[in-house]
Structures are given as structure tokens and as C-alpha cells.
Amino acid sequence: MIENIDNNIQLFIMGVCFGFSLYNGVTKRSRSWVLVTLFYAAFFLGSLYWELFYTFRGDTPSKFYVAEFSWYVSYLFLFLFLRYQKNTKKTAVPCRIKWVIPVIAGGLSIYYMTFGQITSNITSALLMSLIGMESVKGLCSDNRKMKQVYVMTLVFFSLEYTLWTLSCIFDEISVSNPYYWVDMMTSLSLFLLCVFVRKALKDEVAL
Amino acid sequence: MNYIENIYICIAAPILVAVIAMSGGRAPSGGDKTLSLVRSNRRRIMLFVLVGMTICLLSSYISTFMTMILEADKQEATWEITPLVEEVMKFLPVLFYILVFEPDNREESAVNIMAIAVGFATLENICYLTANGAADVLVLGVRGFGTGVMHVVCGEFVYIGFVFLWDEFWLRFAGIAGLISLAATYHAIYNILVSQDGTAAWVGYLIPMLTALLMLHLRHRLRIEKEKK
Questions:
Q1: Cα–Cα distance for residue pair A5/A175, rounded to 1 Å
Q2: Residue A92 contacts B where some CB pair is shorter than 8 Å
Q3: Nearest C-alpha of chain B: how many angstroms from A149?
């Protein structure tokens, strides 16, 4: 029951964000919005595939990682979006603190690997590290327009790792399992990210 | 027993002859005669339709092989393995074309992926016809506008990458790789829905048509917005 509620809330929020970013992508015709649309589209389709598979088969996908690929692709598009916002005219600010991100991601992925799925853990650690490092680098720079987006991306990064760690500790399907509550918070963080992206891309120039 | 190789030979032979016999036309870049066999617009589209059919044949081999290796049942193969194999396979000829022939513009590659999708859907539908008969026009219509259009829509996903993410090298390759995965997930969702009975199957068959109409509308809106500015 709680699992279905959680999945449906996530699907609804991702669907709204996907529709909203698609609308902005078409009306504003900017590459940044195209990348944001693809980020939400990939996340939405991955979640929809997972939910449909679970509903019709009563089990999670085990042979090939279609949903996981889709989620990794969404991380890739989020990274491409953050990287695309980098101000190339200004000189890069040295930011050593960004290296904390791969240490956290790498360390936790080693812990997750003890439960199996080596390749997918390495892939997610790599992509999440790229997202986290780009956000920290953005915060170190003086890109004020994107500040809230970088902060929310780091919140998303932290919630995703909290979620994955909780899934290793708690496995019962009940309301008392904190996994579901953190998952709902992750969905909420992605909604807020969409709001902040809209604010940041207000003056975006069309292609 | 479905003799897919025999069907392939029968359908591909006239196209192959047409590709060779067709007058060359001009390559998009101008008069480079050495590349005119594959670069001229007329031949290129036809050749890529043929390549799409070949990819359909090869994908069936690879999907069967992967299903055996992973010890998957028929449902797992359709829901998890086939979509990813087919979408990756459909992109490989375009990737080869980009790397070897270095097309002048993004539109050239974008059209190629659509031609492959059409060729792929055509052979798949013909194989379906030979296995299930051609008596029921409603079923065939649903099949044509469902599965057939789904392959074209998946091709359109990659087309987006060529149109919007082409300019910068890092965006081009990472973005298009991402879009292939997006197309595979879309394909897998379609396969899950159409393998059900009743409403779920009908929703599944409708999704590609609705997506194609949405894409057409978006393209129209984009053109209007562009003209406004």
C-alpha cells in the first residue's frame, strides 16, 4: 500500500515537472530547457516502467536494468544541464572541496556493492559524483542566478544517498519504514528543483 | 516457425537492386563522386530503409542469444531485453555513418535514423503478418499504427538529439546516448502494456499515435515560435 502511494506520488510529481519543462522547452526554445525536459522525461519514464513492471508481474525487473538505465540517463541529463550553465567567459575559481563528493559517493557505493550489483553501483557513483561536483563548483563560482539550483541539486544528491542507504538497512513494506518518507522528500526536492530552474532560466535566450 | 531470413531476402532484394540501379543524384556536400553511393539523398534514404530491415533481422538474433544467456522467460525477454537491444542496434548504423562519412549537417543524420526506424517496423510487421495471417483488418490497423508507429517515435527521440544537442561535441554524444536509453524505456513500457489484455493493451496501442501527434504539434509550435522571433 505505502509502496504504491509512494510510487504514484513520485510519478505524479515527475509527470507535472516533465509537462511543465516540456512547455517551457517549446515556448522558450532554449537548450537548457531541452536538457531539463530530458532529465524529467527520463526520470518519469524510468519510474513508470518500474511501476508497470511491478503492477503486472508482481516483481521487480531482474534480468536487464531498463529502469535503472533510465534513471542513470536522467542523472546524465542533469549533469549536462549544470555543465551547460557554466559561465565560460569567467576564469574558473579553484574549488578543492568538490573532491569530498566523489569520496562520499565512492565510499557509499563500496558499501552498496557488498549487497551485489557492482556495475550499476559504479555507474551511479560516477554520475552522482559528476552532478555533486558540478553543483559544488557552481556554488564556489559567483553564478548567483543558479545558486538555488545548485543547492537543491545537492539536497537531491543527499536525499538519494540517504534513500539508497536506508534501502540497505530497512526492508519491510510498512509506513514505519523511513525509506518511503525519504523517497517522497526526494520527489518533493525534484519539484522544487523545477521551480528554481524556472527562476534561474527566466532570461534564457532561444536557440 | 517464422522464416525471418527468407522474408528478409524477399523484401530486401528489390530495394537492394533499386539502390544500385537508381541514378546517383548529388551528394549533400557537392560533387564528391567517391561517396555518392551512400551520400546522395535518394540512395541514402533507400539504403537506410534496407539497413533498418537488416537491423531488425540481427536484433532478433541478438535478443534470442541474450535471452538464452540470461535464462529469461518470454515475458522477461519482451519487457527487459528486446527494447534495449533493438534501440541500440537501430542507432549503430547511424553512428557508423557519422564517424566514417562525417555528414555536413545534423538533418542528414536525423533523417537516417527515421529511415532505419521505418525499415525496421516494416520487416517486423511483415513477419507478424506471415505468423498471424492478414484476415483481420482491425488487428492489422492497430498493429500498424501501434507497433509500427512506436518504432518511428523511438527514432524521433534520437532525432531530438540531432536537432537540439548537435552543436557541442560533449553534448552530442552524451545526449544522444541518453536519448537511446530513453527510447528503450519508452519501447519497454509499450511492450509491457500491449502484452496485457483489455484496457491496458488499448492504452499501449494508443500511446505511440498520441506521442507522434504530440511531436507533430510541438514541431508546429516550434516553427510558429521561431517565426514570431
A1: 10
A2: no
A3: 20
Q: Is A205 touching B (CB cutoff 8 A)?
A: no
| Residue A70 contacts B where some CB pair is shorter than 8 Å | yes
Q: Concatenate the DSSP letters of all residues of B100-112 into one string.
A: HH--SSHHHHHHH
CATH number for the domain running over A2-200: 1.20.1070
B112 in Cβ contact with B97 (< 8 Å): yes
Amino acid identity of residue B228, one-letter, is: K
ipTM of this complex prediction, to 2 decimal places: 0.86
How many angstroms away from the CA of A35 is the closest CA of chain B? Answer: 8
DSSP per-residue string spanning A37-66: HHHHHHHHHHHHHHHHHHHHHSS---SS-H
Nearest to B169 by CA among A198, A80, A5, A192: A80
- In tens, the pLDDT along B165-218 reads 777 777 777 888 888 888 999 999 999 999 888 889 999 999 999 999 988 888
Q: How far is CA B39 from CA B24, B36, B48, B94, B109, in A?
A: 9, 5, 11, 13, 11
The number of beta carbons lying within 10 Å of the beta carbon of residue A100 is: 12
Closest by CA to B32, choosing from B113, B107, B102, is B102
CB atoms under 10 Å from CB of B220, counted, come to 11
Please report residues of B whose CB lies closer than 8 A to that of A38. Answer: 175, 178-179, 182
Rounded to whole angstroms, how far apart are CA atoms A183 and A6? 7
* A55-72 tens-digit pLDDT: 888 887 877 778 888 999
Domain boundaries, chain A: 2-200
The distance between the two most distant Cα atoms of chain B, rounded to a whole number of Å, is: 57
What is the Cα–Cα distance from B200 to B211, expressed in whole angstroms?
17
Torsion of CA B153, A54, A41, B55, to 10 degrees: -30
Query: Is the distance from CB of B19 to CB of B36 less than 8 angstroms?
Result: no
Q: How many CA atoms lie within 13 A of B67 on its CB side?
A: 17
Residue B93 buriedness (CB in 10 A; 0-12 / 13-18 / 19+): buried
The total of structural domains in chain B comes to: 1
One-letter amino acid at A163 equals L
Domain span at residue B205 reads: 4-228
